[in-house]
Design the sequence.
């Protein structure tokens, strides 16, 4: 985002060719007049005000004072930055979905078909019910993640929760926006209502700042670490089965 109009770029660059991925990146502030050129501004499905493009660095000389943090700290900085970045995607998706659902609910209370308000058809009002439940579930997850970040900072557990919040809230916004369009019928597909634009915008959130698949990668990784690293708890449900002691029946390979 911002390639078209930004004056300042935050750039991750490999500064240690042979180093480990975690410690070979460094972060720099690069100003446009240091040699940044926009090679192509992309045509986009949505978020068209963002000016996303491909930039190239032409003989760009960046002074050492523009290094952020220590050399090789790029990985650490990235992990830290992805917390507010992904929480913003999650919370933004939540706010957007809430407004879209209001538009759909109000419309369904005014639009009539077969002599009745369309909200009197369960095919319509149950979409509203599903959507508000989805929004509230996402809201709870986003709030729990934010509380966890406030309380514990960047830990494995908060990384998992933030990734869950980002994935759940952005996918929820896609579902809710799609339902809103369905409730509005044909007019929802036009630019008389803002639903078509919201639908195009919502699609990006499942891709940027880490795709849903990358969120899954983090979620499962952190969860496995938690579960496999757990000490035996007081309650061991596995041992509760009547024939749990038949070790010879537990064949894993
Ligand atoms: C409009 C727009 C604005 C953007 N703005 C910015 C910006 O300001 N700053 C910035 O840094 N980036 C920005 N991006 C880039 C964005 O963050 C990336 O496009 C996104 O993270 C996905 O990376 P990729 O495009 O390289 O996809 P790829 O990594 O090539 O992924 C392609 C597909 O493969 C899947 N995949 C990849 N690896 C795995 C894996 N290990 N397991 C399972 N599936 C996998 C992905 O989930 C995806 O479905 C922007 C992108 C867009 C479209």
Sequence:
């Amino acid at each position: 985002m911002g390639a078209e109009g930004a004056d300042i770029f935050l750039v991750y660059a490999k500064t240690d060719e042979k180093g480990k991925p975690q410690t070979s990146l460094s972060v720099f502030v690069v100003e446009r007049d240091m040699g940044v050129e926009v090679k192509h501004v992309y045509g986009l499905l949505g978020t068209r005000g963002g000016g996303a493009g491909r930039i190239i660095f032409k003989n760009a000389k960046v002074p050492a004072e523009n290094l952020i943090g220590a050399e090789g700290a790029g990985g650490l900085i990235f992990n830290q930055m992805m917390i507010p970045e992904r929480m913003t995607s999650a919370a933004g998706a939540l706010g957007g979905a809430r407004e879209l659902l209001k538009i759909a609910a109000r419309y369904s209370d005014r639009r009539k078909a077969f002599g009745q308000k369309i909200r009197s058809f369960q095919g319509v009002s149950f979409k509203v019910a599903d959507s508000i439940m989805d929004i509230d579930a996402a809201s709870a997850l986003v709030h729990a993640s934010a509380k966890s970040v406030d309380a514990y900072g960047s830990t494995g557990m908060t990384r998992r929760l933030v990734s869950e919040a980002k994935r759940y809230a952005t996918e929820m916004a896609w579902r809710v926006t799609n339902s809103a369009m369905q409730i509005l019928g044909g007019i929802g597909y036009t630019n008389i209502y803002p639903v078509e634009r919201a639908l195009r915008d919502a699609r990006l959130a499942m891709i940027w700042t880490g795709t849903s698949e990358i969120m899954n990668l983090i979620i499962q990784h952190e969860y496995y670490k938690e579960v496999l690293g757990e000490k035996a708890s007081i309650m061991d449900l596995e041992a509760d089965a009547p024939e749990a002691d038949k070790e010879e029946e537990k064949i894993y390979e």
Q: What stands out?
A: The first helix runs from residue 74 to 110. Residues 1, 44, 47, 50, 52, 204, 207-211, 213-214, 217 surround flavin-adenine dinucleotide (CB under 6 Å). The longest strand covers residues 8-14.
